[in-house]
Amino acid sequence: MIFFGLFKESVFFAINALVVNKLRTFLSLLGITIGIFAIITVFTVVDSLEQNLRKSVQSLGDDVVFIEKWPWAFDGDYPWWKYMNRPLPDYNELDEIIQQCNGAQSAAFLISSQITIKHQSNSIENVTIICASHQYEKVKNFEIADGRYFTEIESSSGRPVAVIGDVLAKALFPNQSPLGQTIKINGAKATVIGVFKKEGESILGGSPDTQVLVPVNYARSLIDIHNENLDPQIMVRARPGISNDELIAELTGLLRSMHKLKPLVEDNFSLNQTSLISKEFDSLFEIVGIAGWIIGGFSILVGGFGIANIMFVSVKERTNIIGIQKSLGAKNYFILLQFLFESVFLSLIGGIIGLLIVFTITQLAGDSIGMEISLSRSNVILGFTISILIGVVSGFVPAYSASQLDPVEAIRAS
Amino acid sequence: MESIIRKRPKLLTFVCVLGFTWIVFSFPAVFSPSVKKLGDWYPALFGLIVAVSFISYIGVWHMKRWGVSLFILAFFVKEIILILINDINYIGIVFSSLFITIMVFYYKRMDVNL
Fold it and tell me: Which of B12, B9, B14, B26 is CA-nearest to residue B92?
């Protein structure tokens, strides 16, 4: 009980000392504020980007294998001259994959291009059109907020129907429902039968908010689906319980036999998966995180020196008060705690201000750049931890030296 | 009991200097991305260990027995956590054990007061 009384008293002393020297308190906590701000900002941005990337990759499907002509490779070794002679994935290969690949749950052929869409006097240029076969719905993760997806008959017969993104729906059909309305895609009519659920900006691009989805058999009348520039690909989703590696092994055998490749001949197709993108971004985020850690670390170190300096001054200023306190019976640990609390408070206030600045910036930035940036719980804990740690480490030596003062000599000090 | 100033052996000075250097390098590691990845509370836990280790070195520097006790406590807590996360540093264990041996050797010469 006595200990808690002393504890309370030392906290009171510390707060009082900080309030009396307002300007000094403000200047000394600036270092910590800047340090915490720097390090937590970098961690928050990196965490948010990482989260957005994972969300984007997840929407592509982490159990999906993409059969393409070009591999997704990000290192220096990229023999493009070998890849350029490869055949393009063909729509005719799709049926064989669906029928023969046991590890595949579903598969879809798709191509994409940039087009202009119109509705009456409203026109939007450079809209991404996705022309896909029927199982696209089962391979790609997306939700339809309004309306429906194509029926099997609409897909196979190539009916002029389209599912459009939320942004396009609002731009082309302001204040009215887009369902049942007609849009013109490169001059050809199509009926809107669905609207994608709004997803927001994607770090990898290709947000469904600004896309138009039509059956690939309808697209044949609009564009040349064998054109290499349309990036034809076949997406294959693995059955539950089948790993991507197993699926890739099975697809490799199947595609090699379909392409009639001899045993020693290299594959003339690429089997890509989203983990390749994640891995590449992971290393990038790691570098950014380390850079932020170093920059913020130095700022915090400087802030810590500032606090240690101000605490030494504080001890020097209050030497005779320490002497009086000790002569009246104050224990060494009471003096120690008094100064230690002062330093921890100082550092903690600096840290809280830094965290508040980061929080304000994330709120403002999130709205303006259209990407979700949030100050996570782990970063808040980290901010508090660093603040307290700096307070203890930088304040302990001055506090300890104060606690060891001889009462008689301390009272005499001018 | 009255506190008296005790002369610090050179070996303990050497141990403390090495310890302070270790603290300088360990401090940034508290908020490194690799520690942060382990979990929300790991930076706080490592921060606490670093702070306690730092305080213990100051105690040993001033020839105080509580410094040795605190150092041993910090060492065991740290090693238990490292074992739990499967990140055992054998060089660290050897150095810390050596430091503890030296500190314990001079323990009787140290002051019992704060």
Answer: B26
Given this model, what pLDDT does residue B1 score?
Answer: 46
Nearest to A389 among B3, B30, B40 (CB): B30
Burial class (CB within 10 angstroms; exposed 0-12, middle 13-18, buried 19+) of A80: exposed
Task: Measure the CA–CA gap between A251 and A271, rounded to whole angstroms.
Answer: 8
**CB–CB of A113/A196 below 8 Å?**
no
| Chain B touched by A347 (CB under 8 Å) | no
Between A and B, how many residue pairs show a Cβ–Cβ distance under 8 A?
68
| Range among A44-53, A218-227, A256-265, A351-360 rated most confident | A351-360
- Please, which residues bridge with residue A100 across strands? none
Q: What is the pLDDT of residues A88-130, one digit of tens each?
A: 888 888 888 888 889 999 999 999 888 888 888 888 888 889 9
Listed by start position, the domains of chain B span 10-109
Residue A276 scores a pLDDT above 60: yes
Residues B35-47: tens digit of each pLDDT: 777 877 888 888 8
Q: Which residues pair with A130 in a beta bridge?
A: A112, A213
Contact assignment for B31 to A403 by CB distance below 8 Å: no
Separation CA A225–CA A202 (nearest Å): 26
pLDDT for A370 equals 65
- Helix-strand-coil split of chain A, %, nearest 5: 55, 15, 25
Chain A hits for B40, CB-CB cut-off 8 Å, are 377-378, 381
Whole-number Å distance between alpha carbons of A37 and A319: 34
Distance CA A269, CA A255 (A): 8
DSSP B111: B
Cβ–Cβ contacts within 10 Å for residue B14, how many?
12
Pick among A338, A382, A409 to test the B interface (most B CBs inside 10 A): A382
Q: Which two tokens stand for residue B36?
A: 């942060």
To the nearest whole angstrom, how far is the Cα of B79 from the nearest Cα of chain A? 20
> Which residue's structure tokens are 């605190």?
B70
Task: Please indicate whether, in this complex, the C-beta atoms of B114 and A377 are within 8 angstroms of each other.
Answer: no
Strands A211-215 and A161-164 come out as antiparallel
Give the model's pLDDT for residue A203.
Answer: 64
ipTM of the complex model: 0.85
Rounded-to-integer distance, Cα A189 and Cα A214, Å: 11
